[in-house]
Design a protein that fits this description.
Elements: E1 2-6, E2 9-11, E3 17-24, E4 31-38, E5 45-51, E6 57-59, E7 67-72, E8 77-82, E9 91-99, E10 112-113, E11 117-121
Parallel strand pairs: 2-11
Antiparallel strand pairs: 1-3, 3-8, 4-5, 4-9, 5-6, 7-8, 9-10, 9-11
Length: 123
């Protein structure tokens, strides 16, 4: 299994960004995919999760109404749209997978990870 994140960068407060997670070596339909972030000196934090088979989505309270997770099973890709970002959204964003149709925002429940994509929110 290989996961590759992309789309990070520098964005101004209030701006938007779309992250992508391309998966290979697996069939996305059989997995749940989570987005997590980690700021310097902090633990990895669950942001959002999607069940690839039926599209059910879950969000951390801190991002509800601002972030949107989606997937394109044909492209084996999961997206995270970040809107109305603030400095608190700065961090390395990782996608992770776990087998089955059960989402979680607890990173220990995920098996495979990408290398991450840096998001920096700054004026």
């Amino acid at each position: 299994v290989q996961l590759v994140e992309s789309g990070g960068g520098l964005v101004q407060p209030g701006g938007s960004l779309r992250l992508s997670c391309v998966a290979s070596g697996l069939t996305l339909d059989y997995f749940s995919i989570g987005w997590f972030r980690q700021a310097p000196g902090k633990e990895r934090e669950g942001v959002s999760c999607i069940i690839a088979s039926d599209g059910s989505t879950y969000y951390a309270d801190s991002v509800k109404g601002r972030f949107t997770i989606s997937r394109d099973n044909a492209k084996n890709t999961v997206y995270l749209q970040l809107n109305s970002v603030g400095p608190e959204d700065t961090g390395v964003y990782y996608c992770g997978t776990r087998v089955g149709s059960k989402c979680s925002l607890d990173y220990v429940r995920f098996d495979d990870w990408g290398r991450g994509s840096q998001v920096t929110v700054s004026a």
